[in-house]
Amino acid sequence: MTDPGYIQLYESGELEQRVQRLEARLEHCDICPRRCGANRLNGEIGSCNAGKLVAVAAVCAHRGEEPAISGSRGSGTVFFGNCNLRCVYCQNYQISQDPERQRPNQITPSRLSNRMLYIQNDLDCHNINLVSPTQYVPQIMRAIYEAVPRGLNLPIVYNTNAYDAVDTLRELEGVVDIYLPDLKYASNSIAAKLSDVAHYVPTARAAITEMYRQVGNLVVDSDDIAVRGLIVRHLILPNELAGSEESMRWIASELSPSVTVSLMAQYYPRHKAMEVPPIARSITTAEYRRVVNLLDVLGLENGWLQGEGSRDYYLPDFNFEGHPFERG
């Protein structure tokens, strides 16, 4: 297997330059599309509820991701605290929507670097899986920069809600090996109602297009483990609120029918979802089958279908110390 691209970028000096550029942007933060302007270097908190330090809620070998990500040894998952969206149904709401609770979890990029090496050397995972990384891109890049001379050589997975700024993503080219974005909505008004975000659709589509430009279609090794490429996740919501048909048509026509799609059926009304009647239930079999059939119609043949009974398995509990998905 060839070395990840970030090693060559480190050796050429390019990685250090990118780290410096990204860190400078924290002074008037424009890392994500909200571009709130907070001086995070001086202790101000951005609209994402993140500051200068990195909130890390959990680090574990996750065996519940897509088969090409988890493999046989698990995906070395770093669950970051806080988020630049406010999804009323967020399954990770315990860490994404409770900034006060995340304060004790704040660490420096150097400590994050240590955890990356722990994933590689102690957990022996296939990759480093960065969950909700958007608000911490500068710190993540610093951590990778510090870990390379200490032997880091695992592929990097960027596991995101896709509300990412293209200019930030461009700094990740050659660093991220596998992009794993959600494509949540096909309607800006629904995105505003359910995730408190403006212009989600054009922003996420532009971000995913840039990701695809960087890494292309999914490439796996001889053991069917992902080494490079794009995997687009789509969570089916009740009452067709995710706009599944429009989003799948966009992938097929504007990206490629060859793009790998991970169709998720795990929706469960958590957090504030019971207060929003259209999403206060799980999806039906008919809703699930409709989207599955659509994949066939559009020729989207690469990827995975999550089983209808998956929601119970995929509910994390971050009150449990250690692994949020393995509670013994």
CATH architecture: Alpha-Beta Barrel
| End-to-end CA span | 35 Å
Figure out the total of helices. Answer: 12
Helix and strand run: HHEHEHHEHEHEHEHHEEHEHE
Organism: Dehalogenimonas alkenigignens
Binding site for [4Fe-4S] cluster: 83, 87, 90
EC number: 1.97.1.4
Domain Radical SAM core: 78-194
Structural overview:
Its cofactor is [4Fe-4S] cluster. Keywords: Iron, Iron-sulfur, Metal-binding, Oxidoreductase, S-adenosyl-L-methionine. It is an enzyme of class 1 (oxidoreductase). GO terms for molecular function: [formate-C-acetyltransferase]-activating enzyme activity; iron-sulfur cluster binding; metal ion binding. It is a single chain. This protein is 34% helix and 15% strand. It is of the alpha/beta class. The radius of gyration is 19 Å and the shape is globular. The two termini are 35 Å apart. The mean pLDDT is 95.
Strands, helices and their partners?
Blueprint: H1 5-12, H2 14-25, E1 54-62, H3 67-70, E2 75-80, H4 93-96, H5 99-102, E3 106-107, H6 109-121, E4 128-131, H7 137-147, E5 156-160, H8 166-171, E6 178-181, H9 188-195, H10 200-215, E7 219-220, E8 226-235, H11 244-255, E9 260-264, H12 285-298, E10 303-305
Parallel strand pairs: 2-4, 4-5, 5-6, 6-8, 8-9, 9-10
Antiparallel strand pairs: 1-2, 1-3, 7-8
Summarize the structure.
This protein is an alpha/beta fold and 328 residues long. It contains twelve helices and ten strands.
What are its keywords?
globular; iron-sulfur; Putative Fe-S protein PflX; EC 1.97.1.4; 12 helices; 10-stranded mixed β-sheet; metal-binding; 10 strands; 328 residues; Aldolase_TIM
